[in-house]
Amino acid sequence: MATKKKSPIKKSPTKKAAPSAAIAIEVSLAASYPTLGEAQQRAFLGQVSIAKCAELGARTKAEGVYRDAQKWAPIIHTALQQHPVALRRYGRARFAWFLLCLRELGERVATQKGKRSKATSARTALERAIDEAKAVRALIAEALELLAAGDPKAEAAYAAAFGVADSLDALRDSLAALADLADETLRATDATTRALVESVDLTADDVRLAREAHAALGAARSTRIVEGAAGTHDEPATSRAEGRMLFEMRLVMGVFEAAHRRTALVPRLTPGPATRSALAPSRTERAAPNEPAAPDAGSPTTPGAVSPAVAPV
Predict the structure, then answer these.
(1) Based on the domain organization, do 94 and 125 belong to the same domain?
(2) What is the C-alpha end-to-end distance of the chain, expressed in Å?
């Protein structure tokens, strides 16, 4: 029986679909909750002043608060589905507001990171321009110093052009002066100067590099001024969004804690490293006695049992 020959044509491998961009948890969960009306948003906004939001936000870092709140969101969502009676004091509209605050904070954090990235890039570009300018200055200065050796007038002209480079402006001035002196020397036609210029290999490229370095310094400085400094503090608007998020986290944490004391199946919301100091319970809260935990509605131990009402926080 003849053996079938394998086709020489190779099948192209099946291309895997490109992974879709991750959707923020606050966006994906928002679809499951009601859209808040203007009156509801105004009511929630009015519970904490702008000044208080700024005060709360000043204690923490926005990016860390955003991460901690994101971790809480799916826990809250699941608990609201599984323990609606125990958590009835924390309504769906309130969690919709939590998600809205989280989304705003995420947008503020992203904008702030973008600005800091630009500022950092501008600072790096300026530092690189300064290093390159110093290197170019040293090269052209070396040639001009050798040309001036033994001639008091030429040495004085070189010293004046070399100057100092203890600031950005001084470095730019020195580069410009050295480029002008080198250009003037290259234009000399007498045989002595020509011979000396050739001996140190001073060329028009040296002048060009010095002028380019001078221009690059100016451009990098202008960009640095426009982009500003890459500060480590949160911007005021970001701090306010951060403080509002902390207020919502503190509120929901209190509701969940009260529900947990009554119904052990309700999870506690534990602050992360970024929010622990801002959300730590007060001495009064820490001293509150643990109430006996009652089984949740639908608990395996007591079918059909209904949890007692949770006191508002």
Answers:
(1) no
(2) 85
